[in-house]
Amino acid sequence: MTTADTPRAGTRTTVQKAALAVGAVFLLVGLLGFIPGITSQYDQLSFAGHESGALLLGLFQVSILHNIVHLLFGVAGIAMARTISGARSYLLYGGIIYLVLWIYGLVIDQNSAGNFVPLNGADNWLHFFLGVGMIALALLLTRDTKRTTARA
User: What Pfam families does the entry give (predicted)?
Assistant: First the structure.
């Protein structure tokens, strides 16, 4: 870890704040997926697979596995937000993962065993926007940091 990677004690860079916010949202979404009422058809929540009929906010298909992935992704974001490079990596590689997941969701048969997470059309397009947004945050919010550290 370099000096440029560690802000002054008690301060966070914009990219760190963004990673922390994204992580906190994933953590919240993971928790909300386990709350009846916020997750409709909660009685149809299964561990994994396309048979899970539970819908977060009545729109996004979820399962126990899907909720756990959101929780873990949230914890990772909060932990990695401690450093600039960790925050950038979380947003960049997390965004790439979500774009791969978007493509995966588009090509699999949603009624097949391949849809083990599970994913529906709303999930797919949310994954696209998350992927693009996270990558954009990683690149745009660290653009000046790279120039500054390259001169030092």
Answer: DUF4383
Burial grade of 80 (CB within 10 A; 0-12, 13-18, 19 or more): buried
Over residues 19-32, the mean pLDDT reads 98
CA 152 remoteness from chain centre: 33
Split into its structural domains, the chain has a count of 1
Rg (alpha carbons) of the chain, rounded to whole number: 17
Q: Is residue 2 part of a domain?
A: no
Could you tell me where the beta strands, DSSP code E, fall in 4-95? 39-40, 55-56, 60-61
* 93 within domain boundaries: yes
Amino acid occupying residue 58 = G
Tell whether 126 is covered by a domain.
yes
pTM for the model stands at 0.84
